[in-house]
Specification:
It is built from five helices and four strands, in the order αβααβαβαβ. With 103 residues, it is of the alpha/beta class. The protein has one domain: 3-Layer(aba) Sandwich (Rossmann fold), CATH 3.40.50.10140. The chain has a four-stranded parallel β-sheet with strand order 2-1-3-4, sandwiched between helices. α4 packs parallel to α5. The chain is globular, with a radius of gyration of 13 Å. It starts with a helix and ends with a strand. InterPro entries: TIR_dom, Toll_tir_struct_dom_sf. It comes from Solanum commersonii. Pfam families: TIR.
């Protein structure tokens, strides 16, 4: 996970939701770096999720505590159970906590 994602979750500004194999090494990396250069604390998963694993409590907490969620849709985004779980939790938090979602 990126620097801002491990010990500073409670001070997150942005949670980036994306399909790593589609966008993780290009667009998302550039976006993360641009946000980081401006001092915007951003959660970005740098680990590869093992197939069949469910979304972790750390991710759920990061989604809940981030002020904004940025969802980057790609061709295979909807085929990822992990991405769909993230999106469902983001929408739930938006409704319950009145968080802002940027698509």
């Amino acid at each position: 996970m990126s620097r801002a994602s491990s010990s500073h979750i409670c001070k997150l500004n942005v949670f980036l939701s994306f399909r790593g194999e589609d966008t993780g090494k290009n667009f998302v990396s550039h976006l993360y770096n641009a946000l980081d250069l401006r001092g915007i604390r951003t959660f970005k998963d740098d680990k590869r999720l093992e197939t069949g694993k469910s979304i972790s409590d750390e991710f759920l907490k990061a989604i809940q505590e981030a002020r904004f969620a940025v969802v980057i849709f790609s061709k295979s985004h909807a085929s990822s159970r992990w991405c769909l779980e993230e999106l469902a939790h983001i929408i739930k938090c938006k409704k319950e906590l009145r968080r802002v979602i940027r698509l």
